[in-house]
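step 4 of 6: structure.
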Amino acid sequence: MTGVGATPISRLRRQRIRSAWLFLAPMLVVLAMVAGWPLARTVWLGFTDATFGAADRAQWVGLNNYVYLLQDPDWWGAVWNTVLFAGASVALETVLGLAIALSLNARFGGRGALRAAILIPWAIPTVVSAQMWSWMFNDVFGVINHVFLGLGLVDQPIAWTASPDTALLAIILVDVWKTTPFMALLLLAGLQMLPRECYESARVDGVHPVRVFFRVTLPLLKPALTVAVIFRLLDALRIFDLVYVMSGNNRDTMSMSVYARQQIIDFQDAGYGSAAATLIFMIIALFTAAYLTLARVGREA
Amino acid sequence: MTGHRDRSVQPRPEPPLRARLRGVLPCLAAAAALALAVSAPAQAGTLSISCGALGRELQLCQDAVDAWSRRTGHSVRIVSTPNSASERLALYQQLLAAHSPDIDVLQIDVVWPGTLAPHLVDLSRYIPQAVVDQHFEALIANNTVDGALVAMPWFTDAGVLYYRKDLLEKYGETPPQTWQALTRIARRIQAGEREAGHPRMQGFVFQAKGYEGLTCNALEWIDSFGGGTVIAADGRITIDNPHAVAALELAASWIDDIAPLGVLNYDEEESRGVFQSGNAVFMRNWPYAWALANAEDSPIRGKVGVIALPRGGDAGHHSGTLGGWQLAVSRYSSDPAAAADLVAFLTRYDEQKRRAVSAAYNPTIVALYKDADVLEAVPFFGQLYDSFAHAVARPSRATGNRYNRVSAAFYNTVHDILSKPDPVTPQLQTLRRRLERLSRGGHW
């Protein structure tokens, strides 16, 4: 690079960098306005006693909100529910999504139509599907209990969304139903990028399909899998609509976002709620960083 | 919007400019003309009102508002607000905190006067005392904050008990007067019907999801046992008492006995779903369920009776939680007098009668409960007069801004009591300590 004629190249580069920034500027300004500013304001509000109705009269209270937050058992319950929900739903969605992606990757008639059809649960707005499922889970007139009773699987109707033992499970199941197609689609895209040669040589060598999956497909799919899991994990950790529609502000199933909303909207405590929102942001960042580090360590090993 | 405004405002500054060039006297005249022109829109200007849009509410509101417009020459804009009460409150608070004149007349829930009072006009300056006195005393008391009448009652609500006339008749029972009787009858009919080939029959459904509705239900149980209203009018925390314990112990015994376990996640509509599909003997709900249970397509049409909620034992009394909506005028309204006149028009006798007859909205004017036309349209208004007149208010006035926290702490505790087998007394003690912390020792 630093050979003969360094000056004209670097001038060209400077020019390019300048125009790159010029092109980026509108996007950066928009990002700063729609993401940077609200985030900064939320962080700032988290250190004040702002109320929802009078955010302008806020007083600086330092770390008080965080001290209260960390002492609130309801907050920790919400954190635990969210982590449990995210872990279970993302794990199930990954396994099921991979299975569906593998079967859809095979060649058969009507594959295009089927690919479109499995996306239907993902296409229904969450509020609608959550309400639909909560009627289906109803213990008296819900269709799920009707089927289970008819098949003789249970002898008493199960109050899915009411009992603390099954409410979170029901929410996880609905999320799996809804988001598995999305996962399958992401993984299918990954599968179609894989080089054909590896499979051909495996077939020539007569390797067992299960071995092919674990030795060829899975390692090659790992980058796509990592991206898909991060996407879903970020999404699952800020779960709100599904939980809110299916069981409202119930403490047994409350997620971190439901907790923050209740503080800000229902209790009008914008300062405290913003502290919770900031903490959610940090927890999600932490999870992402941890997952990326683990994935990198795994790849290097 | 701005385009309209520009067109109407721009020509006006011109006369004084020209006038100033010609002399002082025409200048003054023009200035006076300008002042008139500016103040004129305020006199026959546009008011805006927020009406609910549940069921027929919006149409009823529109008709009445049009009638008022024709009389006064003011034009009125109806602002649509979220149907969910808590979201509507959040929207109001944002607007009012910004001192926005966007909404002149606000439709507010019965538990909001304490929260919104600083932003509302004292209506007693505009509406004569004699008119105010026509309304239920409890509602006027509820809407009076620190001596100011911040809202006029528009329609009221109270929890009532629905029962299946046909089933009670079949088993030779009369409608229950106490919760204990209800428990016994529900258990008997539930068992009988299940044996007779109706396996999904439930004795009693109500609202026990962890939300505001559970606060309303639990308040009725506790109050009917003489256990108070969680927090007394003077701010004292009264929840930790033996009557409240007895009421909640009885309620906890219903779960998975006469009430399905699923009731722990039922709101109004889910309990109505069970009752209206013919799967329950008793239901606690608001009066709105009456018209729906008797609709053309209802399987239980004509088989439903309504009575006051039972007493808590022979020493207790009938109780129903006060609900309903009020109309208030924003302090930031550009024309509070006209807005107050609209409120007076919408809440007056004739208008409330029209709403009661055509859509079964409960009037807040005492005399309408004796009006022949109203009673013909909705027969149970007469029988349940006492329930509506003496409905028990949630402790929103004493707790002001912190009411939502109090309610959440209360319904969470009750939800735990109903869903877990732990003894009641220690949980109420914990709730009391929690409320004491919230209120800094009863000083709300």
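step 5 of 6: annotate
 - Residues 62 and 284 of chain A are 23 Å apart (CA to CA).
 - Chain A has a mean pLDDT of 88.
step 6 of 6: archive
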